[in-house]
Amino acid sequence: MDSLILRTATRLLLTLMILFSIFILWRGHNEPGGGFVGGLICAVAFALHALAFGVKEMKRLLVVDPRSLLGGGLLLGILSGFFAGPGGDPFMTARWIIFKDATGAKALALGTPVLFDIGVYLVVVGALLAMVQALMEED
Amino acid sequence: MLTAIGIIFLAAALAPTLNRLFPSFAHWLLALAPAGGFVWFAGQFATVVGGQPVAESWKWVPALGVELAFRLDGLSLLFALLITGIGTLIVLYSGGYLRGHRHEGRFLFFIMAFMGAMLGLVLADDIISLFVFWELTSVTSFLLIGFNHADARSRRSALQALLVTGGGGMALLAGLILLGTAGGAGSLSEIAAKGMDLTTHGLYLPILALLVLAAFTKSAQVPFHFWLPNAMDAPTPVSAYLHSATMVKAGIYLLARLSPMLGGTDIWFWTLTGFGALTAFWGGAMALRATDLKKILAYTTLMALGTLTMLVGLGTDYAIRGFAAFLLAHSLYKGALFMGAGSVDHGSGTREVGELSGLFRAMPVTGVFIALAALSMSGLPPFLGFIGKELIYEGLLTTDRPVWPVLVASVLANATMLGAAGLVFVKPFLGAPSKAAAHAHEGGVTLWLGPALLASLGLLLGLYPAVLDGLLGQVAASVRGEPLAVELHLWHGLTPALGLSAITVALGIGFYLALRPLTAGLAGLERATRFDADKGWDHILNGLDALARAVTGQLQGGVMTRYMAIIFTAMLLLLGSTLWFRQALVLPATDLGGQWVGLLLGIMMLVGTAGALRARSRLGAITALSINGLSVAMFFIAYGAPDVGITQLMVETLTAIILVLVLARLPALPKGPDRKPQAAFLHGILALGLGGVVTAILLAIIALPLPMTLSQFFGDTSYLEAYGRNVVNVILVDFRGFDTLGEITVVASAGLGVLALLKARYARPKAKPQTGPQTGEAA
C-alpha cells in the first residue's frame, strides 16, 4: 500500500500512539485504561506502520520478534504472581511498595499488579503483531 | 521420602547434561541418586520391621483434600529397596550397555524419571498421588520401549503398551475415586484404618472390577498379556528393570495393597486365582516355545506375575508368605537373567538361542551368574527361588476352596521354569562353541556387576533365609492387614509341598529334554490364541481409526458455512429449548423513557446490518459490520463502561486491519447469487432465530434483579486494598488476576497458533518461492 497521506500520518501518529498506549497502561489502575487496551493501541500503531511502510520496516522498528514479546509478557505475568510466595500467601496475592511524599500522603504505589498489567500489555502486542506480521509476509 | 523421589527426578533432569559433560562416568554419578535412596530406605529398616510405618504428607490441593502423602510400611519398603537397589545397578549397567550411543543421555533421563515415578507409586498413600505416579510410569515406560524410535516395531510396541496400561490407568482413577467415596477417606491407610466392611458396600463390584482391570493391564495378566513380550523391543536395561522387577509389578502391588480392604470374597478369590493361574501357565508354556533370550525371559515374567496374582487371590497365610518370598526371589533372579541376557547379546551379537552354544569359555563370569540365577528360577535348593516355590505350594495346599485345577496349572508352570532355565543357561553356554560364541567377549565391570550381585543374593538369601523373616513378615502383614509372622527355612521336612517340588523338577527336566515335540505342539496352541490377542489388538485400533475418519469426514468438511451452520444450530436449539422449558421468556418494557442516544445507536446498527446484507463485496460487508461494532462501542461509552468501550473500539480497528489483510488474498466474490435460494432461506431463518434467542436471553437477564453485593465489595475494597480507583482494572489484574492470566495465555496461544498455521502454508512445497531472507529467518 503506497499512500503519501497514510505515510505522513503514520509518521506523526506512531510515536503519539505508542506514548498514549503506555499512558493508558499506566493510568489504568485509577482511570479507564489498562494493559489490554494499551496493548491494543500499541499494536494498532505498529500495524498502521506496517501498512504504510511495509512489514520489513515494522520488524526493523520493533527490533524484537513479536513472539519474544508474547513469551516475555506471559513470563512476566506468571512471575509477578510468585512475589506472593515468600509471605506464604496464595499465588498472585498482590504485593505493594508505597512511596509517600513529604506530607505523609500516598504519592506513588508500585505493586505486582502493575507488573502483571505490563505482562498483559506485552502479550497482547506480541500476539497481534505476530498475526499481522505473518499475514503481511505472505506476499 | 519426598526428598528421595525428588533427588531421583532431579538426577533424571541432569542426566543428559552430565552425560554430555562426562560421557565416561556420568552413569556412576547418576547411580549415586538411587544408591543414596537405597541407603536411606535401608536405614528405615529397623523402624519398619518393628511394625512402625513411616509417614509423610504435604498439602497439595487442599480444596479437594488431595495430599502428597507417602507411607512406608513393609510392602512399600520391600518395593522401595528393590527399585532403588536394582535401579542403581541398572543405571550402571545402562552406562556400559549403551556406551557411546548417540542418545545415551536421553536414555538415562528416561530411566531415572521412571525410577522416580515408580518409587512414588509404591510409597504413595494418597489415592490421587498414587494415580499420578502410576500414569507417570506408563508414560516413561512408553518412552523407554520406543527408545529405538526409528524402528517401526518398537513404535508399535511402545504405543501398544501405552494404550493398554493407559487404559488401565483410566480404570484405576475411576476405581480409586469410587474407593475413596465408599471408604470415606482420601488415603489408603485411612480407608484401611476405618475398618469398614467394603466387601458388602453397594459399590464393591464396580470398585473391584475397575481396580482389577487396572492391575491386570499393568501386570500383563491374560487377556492383556500380549503387550509384555512385545515390550522386549526396548533396550535390555529397560526389560531388566521395568518389565521384570518394577513396573509390571505395580499391578501386583496394587492388588496386594488392596487385599486387606477388598480381599476375601469369592469373586476376588476366583478372579485373581483363575486369571493368575492361567497367566502363569500360559507364560510358562510360551517361554518354552520362544527362541529369543529376552522373549523367553518375558514369558517367564508372565509366569511370575500370574503366580503372584494367584497368591494374592488365595490369601491364606502360606500364600501370603509365599507372595512375599517369591516377589523378592523373582526380582533378584529375573533382573540378573535379563542383564545377563543383555551381556550375551552385547558380547556375541545375538540373542537367538539357536545360534548360541558353548559360550562359557568366552564369557565365564556372565555364565556363572546366569547359572546361579537360572537355578534360582528353576526353584532348586538351596536358592531363594526354592523357598518361594515351596511356600506357593503350601499356599495352594492350605486353602479350603477346591483349587486343584489351579494347583495343576501351577505345578506345570513351575516345571516350565526349569525348561526355560535350561534354555537360558544350558543351551547357550554349554556344549561346543557356535559361530557366534567364537568372537564373544565379556563386557566391562558395569555389565557383570548387576547380575553378579543379584544372582549371589539369590543364593545367599537362600542359604540364610532367616535374615529376611523380619522384612517379609512386615510385607505379609501389609498384605494381610494384620500381623503375620514369616519364618523361612530351606528344609521344611517331608511335606506334600516337597513332593510337589519333586514332581515339578522331574517334569521340568522332561520338558527340557522333549523340547522339540513340545514346541511343535505349543506352536499350534499359540496360533490358536496368543496370536489372536495381538491381531485382535490391531483390529480394535483399525476399527477406531475407521470410526474417527468417518466422524471427522462428516463433521470437518472444510466448508466454513457448514461449520457455522452446525454451531449456530446447536446454539439455537440448546439455548432456545432451555429458555422455553425454564419459562424464562420476558416481554420487553415498551417505554424507552427518552433514551434517544440508545435509540440512535440502535438505528445505526440496523443500518449497518442492512448494509452488510446488501453488500456485494467482502470489503463492503466488513465496512458495514464495523458500523455495528462502533455503535456497540458507543453504547458502552454512553452508558458508563468506558474501559469496555475503548477496548471495543481498538478491537474493531484491529479486526478491520486484519480482515483487510486477509481479504486481499481471497478471490473475489462470484457474480450473482452465491448459494441456492433454499440455502439462503435456511440461513436467514437460522440467523433470525439465533438473534431472537440471544435477545430473549438478554431480556431475561435484565429482568432479574441485579445482585449488588459484588459491585459493593469491589467498590469498597478496590482503593483500600488494591490501591486502584478503576474497579474494572483492579478486578482484572488483582481480584481476578488468575482469570486474566488464563486469558492472556489463551491470547498468546491464539497468536502462536495463527502464526504456525500461516507459516505451515509456506512450508508446503507448492507454495510460491520466497522473496528475501526475512521469512526464512522468521520461520
How is this fold's topology laid out?
The complex is a heterodimer of chains A (139) and B (779).
Chain A: H1 4-27, H2 35-53, H3 55-62, H4 66-82, E1 96-100, E2 106-111, H5 112-136
Antiparallel strand pairs in A: 1-2
Chain B: H1 2-21, H2 26-43, H3 45-49, E1 54-61, E2 66-72, H4 74-97, H5 104-123, H6 127-145, H7 152-183, H8 188-194, H9 204-218, H10 227-230, H11 236-245, H12 249-262, H13 266-289, H14 293-314, H15 317-348, H16 364-378, H17 384-398, H18 404-429, H19 435-438, H20 445-463, H21 469-480, H22 496-513, H23 515-528, H24 530-555, H25 560-581, H26 596-614, H27 618-638, H28 642-663, H29 677-703, H30 709-722, H31 727-735, H32 737-763, H33 774-778
Antiparallel strand pairs in B: 1-2
Helix pairs in contact in B: 1-2, 1-5, 2-4, 4-5, 4-11, 4-15, 4-20, 4-21, 5-6, 6-7, 7-9, 9-12, 11-15, 12-14, 13-14, 13-18, 13-23, 14-15, 14-18, 15-16, 15-17, 15-20, 15-21, 16-18, 16-20, 17-18, 17-20, 17-22, 18-22, 25-29, 26-27, 27-28, 30-31, 31-32
Structural overview:
The complex is a heterodimer of chains A (139) and B (779). Chain A is mainly alpha-helical and 139 residues long. Chain A has one domain. Helix content of chain A is 67%, strand content 8%. Chain A is built from five helices and two strands; from the N terminus they run H-H-H-H-E-E-H. In chain A, strands 1-2 form a two-stranded antiparallel sheet. In chain A, strand 1 (96-100) and strand 2 form a beta hairpin. The radius of gyration of chain A is 18 Å and the shape is flat. Chain B is mainly alpha-helical and 779 residues long. Chain B folds into three domains: 1-262, no CATH class; 266-513, no CATH class; 560-714, Four Helix Bundle (Hemerythrin (Met), subunit A) (Up-down Bundle), CATH 1.20.120. Chain B has 33 helices and two strands. Chain B has helices spanning 2-21, 26-43, 45-49, 74-97, 104-123, 127-145, 152-183, 188-194, 204-218, 227-230, 236-245, 249-262, 266-289, 293-314, 317-348, 364-378, 384-398, 404-429, 435-438, 445-463, 469-480, 496-513, 515-528, 530-555, 560-581, 596-614, 618-638, 642-663, 677-703, 709-722, 727-735, 737-763, 774-778, and strands at 54-61, 66-72. A two-stranded antiparallel ribbon of chain B has the order 1-2. Chain B is elongated. Residues 766-779 of chain B have low confidence and may be disordered. At the A-B interface, helix 2, helix 3, helix 4, strand 2 and helix 5 of A face helix 28, helix 31, helix 32 and helix 33 of B.
